[in-house]
Amino acid sequence: MLSQSSFRIQVKREVAPDTWYYEVEAPLVARARKAGQFMIITPTPRSERIPISLAGGDPVRGTIHFAVQRVGRTTHELCALEEGECFFSILGPLGEPTHVQKYDGTVLCVGGGYGAGAVVPIAGACRELGNKVIGIVGARDAIRLIFVDEMRAAANETLLATENGSIGFHGRVTGVIEELLAKGEKIAHVYAIGPVPMMRAIAEQTRPLGIGCSVSLNAIMVDGTGMCGGCRVSVGGKSRFACFDGPDFDGHAVDFDMLVNRQRMYLDQEKKSYEYLKTQDNGGAADVSGDDDPACKMEQLVREYHARFRPLLPEGFEMPGNGNITPKQRMAIPRQKMPEQDPAARTHNFLEVALGLTPEQAIVEAKRCLQCRKPLCLDGCPVNIDIPQFLELTAKGDFLGAAAAIKASNCLPAITGRVCPQEKQCEAVCVLGKKGDAVSIGRLERFVADYERAHAAEATRIERPAPTGRKVAVVGSGPAGLTVAGELARRGHDVTIFEALHKPGGVLIYGIPEFRLPNSIVEQEIENLKAMGVKVICGALVGRSLTLSEMFKDEKFDAIFLGTGAGLPKMMRIPGEDLKGSYTANEYLTRINLMRADQFPTAPTPVLVGRHVVVIGGGNTAMDCVRTSRRMGCEHVTLLYRRTELEMPARREEVIHAQEEGVHFEFLAAPVALYGDEQGWVKEMECIRMELGEPDESGRRRPVEVKGSNYRIPAETVVSALGFGVNPLLASTTPELKVDKWGIIQVDDSRQTSMPRVYAGGDAITGGATVILAMGQGKRAAEVMARIPDEPAARATGLGPIGDAGSFYNNGRVWQPGARRGHFFGG
């Protein structure tokens, strides 16, 4: 039975100065591990995520083996943990396994430092194929040689090299290779893992001799799954991701200069972070900037602003005491303005910009609803919330009843109330909007969800139905996955969510800044799902650590939902993109939102923001990047967009907020190249003017370059927010899963994929879209999955028709989801 591993340390021993060998409990990694793969370890909840090569494992005992050298803050935190203690998170196995084959000649497996551990499994795999394998282990001196016995067991012959000559060959590993060649050894291929200078030297040594050379690259990584693009390396002139395309590459094609340059990107910050840690270890005073509790500061802001905001009513208008109000009176009430932080203040904090309606405002705003006989807003909602009903309950002041009405269709209202583009959906078709301002449906949804959270003791309880005996796996904990989990759990199914990162929430956590969606909101919604019986396993990368077939065969799941999202960054593909200071939006936002680079060095993950920041793109992600940059202290931030403001896909509210916060918009312009300084940092961006031509497939006019209009602007930090593709990992490891040429998972009308009992939804089947559309996709899939394995069986378990979510309880009253206009029964 799968469960969240404790990642307990079973064996720890020092094998060289400042270097420790570990055996750690990690069943998912141990059973799927192959030679050449690595993992991402997060030692403590406050630690940075770091890549560590795997030296082996025992699938029966569920343990993995590796070595770590203590050199910086995170490895210091890791090596401080002792036997019996637990790591916070281990994600793996990651990367492509090393390709081994039968060679016509000898295979050399060369390991330097703790890289020797990673090359041992490769030596064993090569020998199993019948190759003659010579292992070479190198270090500065004898006491730093590690994994020697393991190499002797794996290879046919093992040679040692020490730079001081204390044991074995006196010199570097390249000298050993030279001696072998001089003796006539026919070397067919070399696998080299260790310090970059060592791998580079071996690549240069073997290139002119026509000897194959594979090197293992662990560049800067944040997520390790191909999502952030931070680990990009140049191989054969093309950008590749070390975590996904590697870690093994042809050493003869690697641009080692670029690799070294990017690896040194955070050198100064790593030193500062380590010095901060030593200060804490020595009992020194911490840098307490920002030590106030953000939640307390937010509550204070809300109280201050709410004290100043009162409902807007026409002059001389008094709300009828009996609540009766004519349509004409409703239409005369202006749309209520939601309190917000002042722009001058909010650019210096990550607290939520919008502070929510006051209860008085919410009642007045809800009374604006005309309660149409044929409410068009219902059709505009991707998750089919009964909008008129929840508005009517809100207008009566029954905020908990309104929350229950929403939750009959939407299990994440506090989230969608904040990030759903209601102005393009339910509010876009509101009758009031035809002659004035639509009802603020989204803001009212947010209000009642927040009210319910604040009154948890009295809030809606979900009566959990009897278990159906059906097991469902949900892959991914983004909006689609969370929706499916909630919908199926309240129908009685046994639901387990598998999340690759160390925290659940998907794009809601790593991609959306706290000033738009506080992490605490997402965490609370996930806790609500857990209270419904949903289990969450983090550090589980389905496709690597666990296959879909294994989930059916070994874990006995009846159905699987794929909510893996669209997290593969799209690159600009322009010269200079690999300079230091050039980020993808995913890396930039993940470092800040998930790894809390805004709190560096209190938090260990840094991000570098120059004086001039340029963000390329026009969607909501681009808005998040420019507004985040303002809060990170840049002097000037420019949004570069190749069309005009009219064509921008970003929400209008986000554009206005960015303008209020001092962001400069450069329309009808596109990047051509990045130029760096002598240290390899981006310094300038070359742009070209654009003009709009004929409409393209999106219906928008296509941008066309204006020849000879090139110009340059200063840019010490560049963030590309050009959209996202579907990560190809799952499809590449599951050939029976059909995808289109863009990697989008193909589904039928029931959201079932090409694999029986495997369903998909959200961005994985649409490409990058909105949170609410992903939730809508998830809900449709859940409605079909609720009947697994067949309709007669579903009826036998007492499940109602598709869409019946069971009964909800509100203050002792039973509310029937099928009822409209707030009818309550019994109690």
Word description of this protein:
- This protein has 827 residues and is α/β, with parallel strands linked by helices.
- It is 30% helix and 21% strand.
- It contains 27 helices and 36 strands.
- The strands form nine sheets. The chain has a seven-stranded mixed beta sheet with strand order 11-10-9-8-12-13-16, sandwiched between helices. A five-stranded parallel beta sheet has the order 20-19-18-21-33. It has a five-stranded parallel beta sheet with strand order 23-31-24-25-26.
In short:
By secondary structure, the chain is α/β, with parallel strands linked by helices. The chain is 30% helix and 21% strand.
Topology of this protein?
Layout: E1 9-16, E2 19-25, H1 27-32, E3 38-42, E4 50-53, E5 56-58, E6 63-69, H2 73-79, E7 89-94, E8 106-112, H3 115-128, E9 133-139, H4 148-154, E10 157-162, E11 169-170, H5 173-182, E12 187-193, H6 196-206, E13 212-216, E14 232-235, E15 238-241, E16 248-250, H7 256-263, H8 267-281, H9 294-308, H10 327-332, H11 343-346, H12 359-367, H13 387-395, H14 399-407, H15 413-419, H16 441-454, E17 461-462, E18 471-475, H17 479-489, E19 494-499, H18 507-510, H19 519-531, E20 535-538, H20 548-553, E21 559-562, E22 568-569, E23 582-584, H21 585-593, E24 612-616, H22 620-631, E25 636-641, H23 652-660, E26 664-667, E27 669-676, E28 682-695, E29 701-705, E30 711-714, E31 717-720, E32 724-725, H24 729-733, E33 758-760, H25 763-766, H26 771-785, H27 791-796, E34 808-810, E35 813-815, E36 824-825
Parallel strand pairs: 8-9, 8-12, 9-10, 10-11, 12-13, 18-19, 18-21, 19-20, 21-33, 23-31, 24-25, 24-31, 25-26
Antiparallel strand pairs: 1-2, 2-6, 3-4, 3-7, 5-6, 13-16, 14-15, 17-34, 22-32, 27-28, 28-29, 28-30, 34-35, 35-36
